[in-house]
Please model this.
Amino acid sequence: MTTLAPPHPQTAAQSDTLEANLAALSSRDERLALRLRDIDLSAAQAHSGRDGSPTFRIADGDDASSPRWLGRCSTPQIRAKALIERFDALGENVVVPAMGNGYEVAELLRRQPAHAAVFVVDDALFDMALALSLHDFRDALSRGRLVLFGTSGFEDALNTFLMQHVGFEFPQRMLKLPQVADDKFDEIRQAMERSARVVTLHQQETAQGLRDRINTSCTATPKTLAVISIDPRESVTTVGDALSRSAPPLAVDMTTCMPTRPEQCHTLSRLQVMVEADATIVLNSGWGTLGSLVPDGYRAASWLLPDACLMPGKTDGFKPNQEVFVATTELRDQVASLGVTHDHIHMLEPGCDEMMLDQAVATNANRDGILLVGPLYELAPQACGIVYSSHTLLWSAVCELAKQHRTDSPERLLSRAEGSCDIQLTDPQIRQTALNAIRDRVMPTLARLHAGSILQQARHAVRVVGHGWESVSGDRITRAEQPQDDRTWSSLFTAADVVIFPAWNKTDIPMLFNAMASGAHVIIAQPSYDVLEHHPQLADLFALMSTYKSGQSLRNTCDRVMKNETFRHESAEQARSIIRDRHLIRHRLATILDHFAR
Model:
């Protein structure tokens, strides 16, 4: 139970935070920023709430001797976490009908993805200014993740904002706050419903106008190219950024529209960049909802990366004349089943970002030891959503058997466990879910734990990276912080003699590239499938990796590689040369451009 402290006055310099927020707001809404800057805040006294959170008490009513808490709450941080934990925004833009003390807004921004916006509606500008003096919202305000409105004229203001900022999706969710009266909440909700009709009609008319401007007559090699995606995952946006950096050497002017911020999420934002381009590359999907807006004859190619997920009505929608590049044979078969002819489907692996090569060359770090890559997943039944006693028993048997039979397939492990427990999963959907969990959760976790244990026994210094290693102890194991971007990953790889992937799949291929580009020697667990059959383009690089099948072979391989600095250096330089010559994102872009020119 949280211990609540008695409220007491707190001295705090709030003006710097407020001014910084207002400076960021000015770039989006200068008029509102000026109004907020002119407010006299002398009626507010800085306090600590009963949960220790900075807040204010305000003497602005008839009874100045009984000041109110900002946001009508003396435990702002506790309340905010409780409210937002129960609120599922589903990654959509959200309307919050009061700024309050700002803690709910801050918590919602923290939990929402970077492409989702929070619209705050509040005509209590005095309270809004105080909340802006408590929280650093500069980044959210400048990136459009936080948009502020007054309730007076909110409907017209929302219409105007969304018509001027066509890349924003209309807010689909609304957060109910305890201090907001039901009639005020309903008033804002009804305004949103009326606004949705007006804005949707405007968006449809704008979309048709943009469609009419799309150029379908260009036949030469494209000189202007758009790269678009509706997939907000970092693995996809990273490729989009790398493609953009690769365009100038190929004499291509490229514009990207990736859902990394709210103003790049609506269909209209993607149509706008297509209007200015001779052709378009669509990452990780077909046309989806854009299909009806793209005229026949417009040149486009889809590039499906290893983690692409084709969902009906959203990320499929391939046109008959559209070139489709796929990173895996599974995606090739899936695209073919959606009606794309085989002569329009081409295998194209991910490439390496040239920035990784350049960064590694510039770093000149002293390499030291082994880096083991990959997260450890919680395998307790309750953590995996398993509640039935029979399923719990079966799951425990799977986990125990997986320790003894690490090279078994998920199907074989599940069959062994069913036999040992005399429990059968007969429902096809439940069985497939179990197989997916064994493949994606159980086997990778146990493989990484086993590799770490073997290296410990061999007295190798091991650095581990990935969530879940906090509970694993060892006198020669150190933990690295989980990298948040490719540059940080490159720094980790550059500092290691050897990088080990005890459990990897097709979606890890870009990370294998980055490790080799950074100059480390890569050791991988022997895949359960024919690598050369599935990844023929990468045969030259896989030949330079070391593989292992068992704990003893891992130990022997590490002993050999770590003792031979010349081998490590020569194989790393050879791998980097191959990547620079054949496996950069620039090479993949050149392949796509070549198909456009045919």
The longest helix spans residues 182-213. Residues 1-13 have pLDDT under 50 and may be disordered. DSSP finds 22 helices and 20 strands in the chain. The two ends are 68 Å apart (CA to CA).
